[in-house]
Amino acid sequence: MSGLKSRQRFDRRVLVFHLGSLLILLLLTARLIDLQWIRHEDLALQADQNRIDVVPILPTRGEVVDDDGRGMAINRVLFQVQMIPERVDDPNKVIDALAIMLHWDPDTIKRLRRRVARSRADRPVLLDDKLPWSTVAPLAARLHHFPGVNVLAGTERLYPYGPITSHLMGYLSLAQPDDVEHGAMPNELVGRSGVERSFDTMLRGSLGFQQEEVDAHGRRVAVLDRSEPHMGKVLKLSIDMDVQKAAWKALGKRTGAVVVMNVHTGGLLALLSKPGFDTNHFITGLEEREWGAWLHDPHKPLLNRAIQGAYPPASTFKLITALAGLRYHVPLATGTTVCKGVLKLADRNLRCWKHEGHGRIDLHRAIVESCDIFFYEMGDQLGMERLTDEARLWGLGKRTGIDLAGEASGNLAGARPEAKRQQWYRGETMITAIGQGATDATPLQMARFAAALANGGLLLKPQLRADVPPDVQARVDVDPQNLAIVRQAMRDVVANPHGTAHAELYNLPWHVAGKTGTAQVISMSQDNQGHEEPVYDRHRDHAWFIGFAPYENPQIAIAVFIEHGGHGGSAAAPVAAAVIRTLAAEEKEKQQEPAPLQAAATPEPHA
Amino acid sequence: MNVRWRALDLPLLICLLCLAVLGSATLYAAVHQGGISLWQRQNLHWLFGIGVFALMCVIPLRVSALAAWPMYAIALIFLALVPMVGEVQLGARRWLNLGLFHLQPSEMMKWALMLLMAHWFASREANRLKPLAIALAFAVVPAALIFLQPDLGTTLVLLFATTAMLIASGLPWRWFAFAVIAALLSAPLLWHNMHEYQRMRILSFLNPQSDPLGAGYHVIQSTIAIGSGGIFGKGYLQGTQARLHFLPEQHTDFIFGVLAEEGGLVVALLLLVLYGILISRILAIAARAHTRFGSLVCLGIASIFIIYIGVNIGMVSGLLPVVGVPLPFISYGGSALVTMMAALGVVMRVAIESENKVPWQRPGSPLL
């Protein structure tokens, strides 16, 4: 047969094999050029994304301390025990060994064995959490016997004073999607209320990052780069925990609020609202039931009464009426009237709290003994607009600007929109003059008012931070003589045996000046239907006391408010007494210490 | 001994030496983190392979030709046994684990079939229907068994190798074209009979991103490994995809990823050049073989090599679906290496026997 033809065909086929092989190799070459040259940058980036993990390092949240450095919000170091199952020969044996050191009961051991069995072998499994050092110390000392077992430190936010500072400190919770958009990490704690919220940025610090090289199983192989987090700063408050605690204790089981303010700086020495709640529960994960209980509690523990609650200021408002009367020289500023216990106005009776009446009475005695009839008449002489103007001057009806969220602005009866449109009923003006009716104010506003009376008319921003310069928001244009008249009367509220707070505040190391208030909860006449007799339901009255001390050289102003507390004198003034006693004792202690600078700055004690 | 040393093809030997060095170094890079015992074992495989290579150099081709039928028969029996007893021994075999098994009937069958075809067509032409039909039967029976294992990749490799042998043996191009068209038309039928995982694998090849953590993961990671290597590579033992185990199966089927990542385009092309030289030397020996059997054996061996190279690198670089095929002389695996060394030994034997002889059916050849 055609052997030669066959051979020629074979030679051609060998050429085909050559060409075919070359074609395959060229195709592969083209692919390699495509991947390694043309698409190199993109794929190199993908390789880096594979291996480089950017892990945020959370800064430690700054602690909050009072003016004496006592921790109000602190970080407790707690420990976690983890195990990486694949690095342990027999996880169950290790769990048994750890159980002895960490005091696990048989149920826990069973649960942990199940957890380890279910978990990925190459990832750490959490065995125990929130352990104090005393518990983990024996394990930590023997950790080299337990390869694959780790002890990690973490922190927990703790509020040592619990409910006493709950409204002030606020609470934290895990960042929500909204916070994450604003730069928080998903596992970071963010302040939700109180100081934790107001100073959140400062307390939180800023994140650090660690660039880690990880393998395909997500295990860290090396640390490539690290930028340290900036730890949160320590926040020092002007709060004096001794004062805060004294006020808390003095309130007892009653509902109310206390504000104590430095009259020169506006620094708050105490700010509390009762009942409180335990903010520590918020961190550890609040039971929904507990939250619901607080939410529906008739005593509203979540309400910060000191700044969010606005109440009729009652007789403490008479100081405003008196200041207005003196400012506008109304007849009663220098004259007298007769209190018979009741005042007829058209078809309704306005009563004095003292049913038998005060007899002939002037401004000084009217403040000291808190005569209602006198101030009804003075209010009548002033009119609603002047009363409202005076109240505004002293900062009522407007937020104080304290660095806490949710502050109420309070309300002025004469500032209602209809004031512009219609005449005031005389009766409404008159009850406004004694602090009833539509006017209400927060304890913080009243404390600031008292501070302004003490410091000569400076309206200060209430400050929570220590060591910040005073922020004078306004200087009240008041005749010093008028101020002196009011202050003298306030002193006699305490010093005069007939004064409404004499019994409770007279016998104190510091001379106190102040004014009591007893607010009716049922308003007498907010509109035209209020023709009925005023109702005196003793159990429903709110008790107020505002004042300052020492009288001769004022240092602090105070506002005490007790919801349904009864009479201002008997209910609220003792709380103020407890605060003043604490402050006076502190000052005495300071003077005994060899601290000349401090001693020079503080005034002479008044026995 | 009748070995004529001058007859040894020196370029082929140098090329093989280079591949051995490159392969050993690459394997070291792939396994050194988990301990070098695998690398040491592969070096032993090399020594053993060299021994087998030398042995094949001295075994006369007549004897090898005689082994064609028995070898094919044994491979076929083994293949038939796989579904029965292989369930226990080989049943867990997945494309991931390919190469871990020392005896693979399908692997053996590729070589046995190639040898039988060379033997069959040594005295026949593939342009007659009857011998062609019988030769096709040689191929279809094992191909069906392997397909049912199921191992689609090896089936295709076997069919490619068969096609190459038929072309080498003089299959008319018209018939070849006809077969290709028929195969394309029957593709839907094949798809219908495929296992779900085989379809998944083909689909994941067509769109690897559709299942980045499943079947597509290997290809995505090996493509990243190759591409991130760039032109000059990340440096020896510096490949992050390899070192951090993002690259799967990096000492067996995906070892090219290690080489290309750490050595870059330069070393990858060097490997292709070495392969090119190797293939062209084998083809050159085929062309000057003094028997038709010797020529066909060399062409068969060259085709198996080029198929392995193309399929493996094509797969690792994302051009082809994932098929369990080793990269010749680089991938870890004793049986594959020893088999390939034996094949090269046979090629060398062809060269030795053809020394100073006229190729078959050339003018001047005694057979003409």
Describe the structure.
- The complex is a heterodimer of chains A (607) and B (368).
- With 607 residues, chain A is α+β, with helices and mostly antiparallel strands.
- Chain A has 24 helices and 21 strands.
- Chain A has 3 domains: 98 residues, Penicillin-binding protein 2a (Domain 2) (Alpha-Beta Complex); 82 residues, Penicillin-binding protein 2a (Domain 2) (Alpha-Beta Complex), CATH 3.90.1310.10; 361 residues, 3-Layer(aba) Sandwich (Beta-lactamase), CATH 3.40.710.10.
- In chain A, strands 2, 3, 4, 5 and 10 form a 5-stranded mixed beta sheet that branches.
- In chain A, helix 10 packs antiparallel against helix 23.
- In chain A, 42% of the residues are buried.
- Chain B is 69% helix and 0% strand.
- Chain B has 14 helices and no strands.
- The interface between A and B is large, with 42 and 53 residues.
Please tell me the total number of domains of chain A. Answer: 3
Beta content of chain A:
15-25%
Largest sheet of chain B: none
Based on CA inertia axes, which overall geometry of chain A fits?
Answer: elongated
Q: Could you name the ranges of chain B where pLDDT drops below 50 across 5 or more consecutive residues?
A: 87-101
Rg result of chain A: 36 Å
CATH class of the largest domain in chain A: Alpha Beta
Q: What share of residues are in beta strands of chain B? A: under 5%
